[in-house]
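Checklist before submission:
- one chain only
- standard amino acids only
- sequence pasted in full

Submission:
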Amino acid sequence: MGRSAKIKKTTIVDIAQASGVSVSTVSRILNNKPDVAEDTRQRVLQIIEQHRFAPQITWQQLRSGRSRFISLHYPQDFNPTSHTIATWAALACESAGYSLNLIASSLNENALLAVYRSGQADGMILLEILTHDWRVELLREHGFPFVMIGRGADNTGLSFVDLDIGTGVEQAIRYLYGLGHRAIGFVTVAPVLQEKEYGYATWALKGYEQTCRQLGITCLWRAVDLKSDNVENVTRGFLEENPGLTAIVTPQGGGVPGVWRVAQAKGLRIPEDISVVGLSDPSLGEYTTPPLTAIKFPAREMGYRAAQILIAHLEGTSDSVQQVLLPPELLIRGTTGPARATS
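Returned file contents:
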């Protein structure tokens, strides 16, 4: 059997010879240096593309002058990272020829601007939005493209995708009220933590308080920081102070396990003694026993649509502001039932 011929790999020298320019000129073009005539740059880029010298994404970057990267900033001050949001944002980016970078650390102003100025990203998806978010104001001031997952107090001229959690909480409270519950507790992240007012927690608590007032029942809520032991300690004290509670609603997925463990430790049957409503990805609520009644958290749609909105802006296919407020859906399952009789 004869020896197979080796496929010769295209080098920068081959590109230079095919283009009729020097190796240094090709190098400057590959490094996106400005000191090359535009007609020469385009001719060399065409040769690079024909010879598949660089991966497709690389020559697209060179030709457009953009990085074709999008950053997703998810600072871990409030909730653990939603992998579903990040995954579906990445899928939307990849389908359009972009890549997604996740930034989980807190950034200062200089570091945030450097993401754009250094060419690390063409645009950014912001999560964990504060009601008055310095990131939003800074990027708006400098004219850098971004989209929010969440929303602040003033969203004029800003694109976002968010769940209408206030209405979702209202639906949960009214459903429990219809089952005879009159003492409905609310366990949530405090809207203001370390001088930061989080939009999601703010809208959730407002939905709870407003609905209680409309129904004429007492507002009973406690703040937690979503650490398991903290949720358990707060919930335990909450139930001891309010033995008449027949239901608890928690609008953060991280609050459900702590509430559940305390109820079991105190010998409370779910839902016979106490009903529980949480927040959950549609599939995850089925894994509890009984299955969790929950406000549906549309993480897939939020991540995917946010990326689509940003990419459309970057590509110039849409320059309009898009504000997508997703309607909530209450998934009725086994953790809610008629209120127990209380003295």
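Reviewer check: The radius of gyration is 26 Å.
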